[in-house]
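Field log, afternoon session.

UNIT: design team B
ACTIVITY: writing a sequence onto a fixed backbone
BACKBONE:
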């Protein structure tokens, strides 16, 4: 009997000990959850883009993200709204920051693995830096903005964590509501610019027309639902009129740009430039007439040379040029540069492209190899 009593006592002690241990673990878990609540913030910051500082909104997070398993694949989503006087959209002129087939701002990151079921970011961790120049706010001046940040399980689309943060921002540019009277004129001129680029090689093909139609569809998101059919008809009619005008006339891209230069923001200038680049590469090759025209657009609109060169490299890589272009144009050598400045520029270009030769992406490797060959030829010329 004594032996049985010892056994029972042992099991009682074991049960009590497990209860105490589990309770302690639960308290520690609750304490960990409480002390590491998922939170976010937005700060004004800057990034260095090829020796030039871009103003950005830096979205950061910290705290715990509870996942269904270890090594959960997640993505981060950021939405921005202006909430000073009711909710209004913030628009993006850059496609990577647009929601589906609209120009409304939304950012989705690539997927990444979180190692633990309860992954904790003890320190502030960066989600994304959003270049301010690509954002279109409703009004000029100080505005109140709301940022919603989501952590999403990529396999189930289940929201694992979310937080909303409110901050103020002083918008120095005129907002899209401030420029409402000029909106229709800008839309028509950006279409005309893109169609002139399309026609510069002597042919406006279906692929180029499709890109312009897609831009129009996105642009319609600026209008209320009851306005959209009217505005769509207006823009489609304008495309037909300009097509006939270009076929029979001698339109000058500089005259078009002169008409909108003083009514556009920096973001809209880049939107125009990007659409023209997209049209130039629509058929998989960039004709030299098209390349010359997009450079003329950038020069006339006084786009920052380093910024627009990075856009050209992304959209019009040297591998899709229809013929061998002037090496100075492809390498970004300005005629005003001295030989010393050219050599310095070529060294910088070599370092940049040499770092991409080992890329896992075949297209990037091919682009890098061709650019290095061009740099080698240019060095002979300027030595």
């Amino acid at each position: 009997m004594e032996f049985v009593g010892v056994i029972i006592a042992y099991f009682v002690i074991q049960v009590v000990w497990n209860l105490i241990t589990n309770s302690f673990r639960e308290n520690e878990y609750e304490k960990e959850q409480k002390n590491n609540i998922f939170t976010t913030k937005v700060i004004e910051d800057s990034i260095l883009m090829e020796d030039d500082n871009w103003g950005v909104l830096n979205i950061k997070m910290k705290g715990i993200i509870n996942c269904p398993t270890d090594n959960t694949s997640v993505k981060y989503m950021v939405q921005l709204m202006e909430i000073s006087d009711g909710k209004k959209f913030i628009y993006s002129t850059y496609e990577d920051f647009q929601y589906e087939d609209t120009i409304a701002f939304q950012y989705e990151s690539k997927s990444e693995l979180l190692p633990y079921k309860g992954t904790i970011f003890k320190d502030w961790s960066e989600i994304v830096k959003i270049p301010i120049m690509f954002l279109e706010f409703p009004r000029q001046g100080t505005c109140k903005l709301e940022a919603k940040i989501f952590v999403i399980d990529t396999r189930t689309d289940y929201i694992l964590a979310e937080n909303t943060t409110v901050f103020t921002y002083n918008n120095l540019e005129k907002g899209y509501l401030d420029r409402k009277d000029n909106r229709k004129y800008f839309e028509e001129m950006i279409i005309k610019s893109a169609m002139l680029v399309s026609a510069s090689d002597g042919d406006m093909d279906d692929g180029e027309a499709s890109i312009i139609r897609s831009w129009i569809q996105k642009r319609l998101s600026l209008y209320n639902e009851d306005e959209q059919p009217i505005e769509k008809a207006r823009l489609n009619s304008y495309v037909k009129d300009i097509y006939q005008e270009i076929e029979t006339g001698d339109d000058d891209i500089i005259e078009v740009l002169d008409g909108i230069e003083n009514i556009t923001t920096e973001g809209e200038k880049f939107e125009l430039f990007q659409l023209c680049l997209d049209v130039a590469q629509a058929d998989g090759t960039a004709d030299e007439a098209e390349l010359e025209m997009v450079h003329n657009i950038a020069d006339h609109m006084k786009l920052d040379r380093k910024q627009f060169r990075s856009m050209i490299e992304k959209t019009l890589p040297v591998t899709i040029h229809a013929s061998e272009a002037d090496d100075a144009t492809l390498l970004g050598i300005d005629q005003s540069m001295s030989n010393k400045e050219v050599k310095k520029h070529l060294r910088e270009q070599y370092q940049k492209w040499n770092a991409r030769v080992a890329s896992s992406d075949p297209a990037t490797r091919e682009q890098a190899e061709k650019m290095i060959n061009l740099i080698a030829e240019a060095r002979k010329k300027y030595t």
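LOG NOTE: Residues 337-383 form one domain.
NEXT ACTIVITY: expression trials, pending approval
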